[in-house]
Amino acid sequence: xxxxxxxxxxxxxxxxxxxxxxxxxxxxxxxxxxxxxxxxxxxxxxxxxxxxxxxxxxxxxxxxxxxxxxxxxxxxxxxxxxxxxxxxxxxxxxxxxxxxxxxxxxxxxxxxxxxxxxxxxxxxxxxxxxxxxxxxxxxxxxxxxxxxxxxxxxxxxxxxxxxxxxxxxxxxxxxxxxxxxxxxx
Length: 185
Ligand SMILES: [Ca+2]
Known about the structure:
Elements: H1 2-38, E1 42-47, E2 62-64, E3 74-79, E4 85-94, E5 99-108, E6 113-120, E7 123-131, E8 137-144, E9 149-159, E10 166-178, H2 181-184
Antiparallel strand pairs: 1-10, 2-3, 3-10, 4-9, 5-8, 5-10, 6-7, 6-9
The structure holds calcium ion.
């Protein structure tokens, strides 16, 4: 009889723990989901340059399939002289206090660089700069706006300003505007 009672108690205890765990997981899931929506996250551009995805106007680049970080396509640019660069310009709007996040993957010849600028009116601010390498690397930047702003994100790759001419491939571009994490908590 005793083992049966013990088994029953153990089973009840396990069941209780399990249901609490499920309840806790469900609450966490809800909280994370709720934060994602209440954070005011606006995706401006999310593309890997695949055929079924958004392709922003990129007159100084071309979509190619010889190299890709994900999928089978990427954005390619080339400069053959000093002080030249290929720009991918993406318009954005952000309310005061919002944070702009820009990230992309880049690789290329050793020599040229890749940079992220934002332009608001006449003011141009460099947010990130890397030297290109043959291996893919992430280029990432964030900027918080003191007042309501609208402008252009400039993803520049390759750039021979301060470097050498050469080639660059860009993939997995993500640009979004959101409330900073501390504001959401
Ligand atoms: Ca791709």
